[in-house]
Design goal:
The protein has two domains: about 80 residues, Orthogonal Bundle (Arc Repressor Mutant, subunit A), CATH 1.10.10.10; about 60 residues, Ferric-uptake regulator, C-terminal dimerisarion domain (Dna Ligase, domain 1, 2-Layer Sandwich), CATH 3.30.1490.190. The strands form two sheets. Strands 4-3-5 form a three-stranded mixed beta sheet, with no helix packed on it. It has about 150 residues and is an alpha+beta fold. The longest helix has 15 residues. The protein is flat. Helix 3 packs across helix 4.
């Protein structure tokens, strides 16, 4: 963790090392600051909520994490170690799915080229219902019809 922080130009502190270690060790890929705070405290790490906010801001500026904003959600952070991807978000349960679609990437590149631009980054978030929530909505609708 120390080498990653040093390579990113960040000062090496115990709290930063513990927070980065936490982010790399858990299975979850999208974190709110509150999730991180709770996860660290569940591990017995005494890091305050304000410190987590501050550290995540430093991590974002250094390029270690990417901050995402989704409709009616708190900011969500993900490690900046994955290829460019897009998101599907369930409006009912909040399920968040990363996906990569080469055809979307191709179309975005062609659109940018057509307009004389190059893409530095993009954000594509699609909102709908996961299969489970759609099934529950369909059942509810069927009951209301009878």
């Amino acid at each position: 963790m120390q080498a990653v922080l040093k390579d990113s130009g960040l000062k090496i502190t115990t709290q930063r090392c513990k927070l980065l270690e936490f982010l790399t060790q858990v299975d979850e890929q999208h974190f709110t600051v509150e999730n991180i705070y709770q996860g660290l405290n569940a591990r017995g790490e005494a890091i305050g909520l304000n410190s987590v906010y501050r550290i995540m801001t430093h991590f974002e500026r250094a390029g270690l994490v990417v901050r995402r904003l989704f409709e009616s959600e708190s900011a969500v952070y993900e490690l900046n170690n994955k290829p460019r991807h897009d998101h599907l978000l369930c409006l009912t349960c909040g399920k968040l799915i990363d996906f990569i679609d080469p055809l979307i990437e191709l179309r975005l590149g062609l659109a940018a080229e057509h307009h004389g631009m190059s893409i530095h980054h993009h954000s594509l978030n699609m909102y709908g219902y996961c299969f489970n929530c759609q099934h529950a909505l369909d059942k509810k609708s069927d009951k209301q019809k009878t």
